[in-house]
Amino acid sequence: MKHTPKTIYLKKQAGEKIVSLSLYDFPTARIADQAGVDLIMVGDSVGMVLLGHPSTLAMTVEQMLYHTAAVSKAVKRALVVADMPAHSYDDPATALRNARRFLKESGADAVKLEGGSKVRDQIKELVAAGIPVMGHAGMLPQGIGDGKYRVYGKESAEAKEIFEDAKLLDQLGVFSIVLECIPAKLAAEITRAVRCPTIGIGAGPSTDGQVLVLQDLLGIRSGVSPRFVRRYAKLEEAIQKAVGRFCRDVRKKKFPSKKESFA
Q: Model confidence over 195-216: pLDDT tens digits?
């Protein structure tokens, strides 16, 4: 059965953990979907993970539509959420126009916006139009122009702001909230306080679900090495070894063989 925002929302009431990955292409989406992932986020982190940018800020709507469409084509079961990139939702009208494009042109099931009170009107506009919205509180990558990633909410004033933003998002009608890089205790308090599910990334074990970037999970190194990442494979080493063997075989004239050639 294909997941919907409602089935994801109801997982919290049922006490079922939500499994999510952030990925960006057809083959990995197909594999993750078949493996049983509930939710796939097509993150603007693609700019850093696949395209070599120092932050997520370079991503455009057109680029995100491209990657989201590739993922959507592969997925049969998981819910697909598209990140709306920086400046694609600066005001309610722009947010609505671009969100509609993600649903219509890329096949996304929902969109994700970063922030709380600063995007209140945008989220109200989307929800009123029937567009499913995922919220995002804590560390907001689109707001980090200098690339200084850190844990947010350690100090009481910042923790209160994050808590209030999460509560507001819940009241506005988002179907879930990503909590990124915040203390585990704060994430637990937010999870208890809101009706919608919380999905953590660097937010401890008490959230209703967890998300990781697929490349991090697979052990493919990037420019950052977050403490919260658990590597389930060493794929970078395996790829290097395979490519190294290919290089040796070609140079020693062992590839292709007769069996790998046409008569």
A: 999 999 999 999 999 999 999 9
Where do the CATH 3.20.20.60 domains begin and end in the chain? 5-232
Residues 74-83: tens digit of each pLDDT: 999 999 999 9
CA-atom Rg of the chain in angstroms: 20
| Inter-axis angle of helices 61-74 and 26-35, nearest 10 | 50
How many whole angstroms separate alpha carbon 165 and alpha carbon 116? 4
How far is residue 99's CA from residue 130's CA, in Å, rounded to a whole number? Answer: 11
- Of 114, 125, 180, 189, the active-site residue reads 180
Q: 180 — phi, psi (to 5°)?
A: -115, 130
180 catalytic, yes or no? Answer: yes
The architecture of the domain spanning 5-232 is: Alpha-Beta Barrel (3.20)
pTM of the full predicted structure?
0.95
Tokens coding 245: 């063997």
